[in-house]
Amino acid sequence: MMRGKGYFFKWYVALFLVFLYAPAILLPVFAFNDSSIVSFPLKGFTTKWFEVLQSTEALHVAVRNSLMIAVTTAIFSTLFGVLAARASTRFAFPARRSIMGFIMLPMVLPEIIIGVSLLVVIIQLGFELSLFTIILGHILICTPFCIAILSSAFMNLDRSLEEASIDLGQTRWNTFWMVIFPLVMPGIVASLLIAFTISLDEFIIAFFLAGTEPTLPVYIWGQLRFPQKLPSLMALGTLLLVLSISLLLLADYFRRRGLKKTGIENSGGFL
Amino acid sequence: MVLISPTLVFTLLMLAVPLIMVLALSFWTQSYLTLDRSFSLENYKTAWTEPMYQYLMARSLKISIFVTALTVLLAYPVAYFISFHVTPKRKAMWIFLITIPFWTSYLMRIFLWKVILGYNGVVNGSLMGLGLIEQPLSFILYNQNAVVLTLAHSWVPFAILPIFVALERVDRSLIEAAEDLGDNRLRRFLRVTLPLSMPGVIAATIIVFIPTIGDYVTPRLVGGPNGLMISNIIELQFKKANNAPLGAALAVSAMAIVTCVTLVFVWMNRKFMRGPK
Lengths: 271, 277
Description:
Chain A is mainly alpha-helical. Chain A has helices at about 5-30, 50-55, 55-90, 95-105, 110-125, 130-155, 160-165, 170-200, 205-210, 215-225, 230-260. In chain B, strand 1 and strand 2 form a beta hairpin.
């Protein structure tokens, strides 16, 4: 029945995947290309662009800043995410839908609006721009993603397990730690990894809120102007690509494990 | 209520308060370093009457609409393929496959489109290699087409997901019923599948449309002088031009326009959800 149409779809989807993955495939190609110009034809294989990265001190500073921001962001946005996800899935409270909608708003708001508004507040209040201000912005945009992941983890909980624990004389606090926490643990790990990945890659907010200390994307943006820096940026991009894909696979693994623990069919990606 | 309060308080402090301050700032005026805090509509007058800003706003809106249309058109067949042609066990893997590129370095991803579309780029190189063209094409980079294509690439996973979810909810027996009643494949699609998946299409439209109008990096990297958008001028006002109040007025205006257009979409969504009477 579907044969004729299925054939068209297969071709279309194959072409679409080429379009979708074109940048990700070209990145490593140019990273190992032995030419200082990023263009075809390719000249030969080299790993020298990766060696350039090793000896660039400014890059190392940016990486340290970004890692610090990403780890802090991951912890706090997951913490906020756990609170919001638990509250919205387990308890009824007034205006729940509007409150959740408001908290999820940064997911659809243009990042430039968030960057600009935080910049205004910080300047008006007379604070200095620093890594700390970037962290605040990143927590704001990562929390909705954490809530999305954690909500499904909390929603799939069987409430009778919790009730059983209380009937058996455990306090609410103990029940949370001994029954609920282990069940949602994979979701929490997935949320930490996703927030870390988003923060590490976020540019606009960091660009507006960075003082004198750059994050990794801000550093990359500064270097994109210099043609001679491009091959080593391709190498850097390749490393980031490998890192983020590994983190995603890890996050997806934990998300699946979480679903298995609560006995739910896997229904797709994170978003 | 107690549980949600830390998250809510954080969002109120970091989102609502800053947005209100931007609104306040847009009614103030600044000359050099002194900020005049008396109420004034001067910035809005400039933002809405100065031809450069009018032009940039219209262009940003136009680019966003094109991006949204292209993205949804590209995404629909892919979502349809995953929903109707992929075995249920493999669906999660496909969705994962579609979302991976979104998580890979944002700046490098956009920059590589510059490499792909450039004068000595991948597209020109291959076309010349195949003997299809003699001279590299120069109209594919540093213009609005390049911005539209690159933005569509960035946002297409976000369009596929809601359409896929909507298609998954389509009751398959309705399609069979249409088939039994003699509708051919095209009529089945147009009369059953497409209307039922419309909420997903509208959701995809909103998800793509709102953020693209505020995109900063893509126009800067691949847009050239004629491809700049409103966010580039907002950034300029806040940084180099040192006129934050005007920047705030431009940002508020852009958001107001986006909100209006979005409300129309939401209204359409409601209408489709209720269905024809």
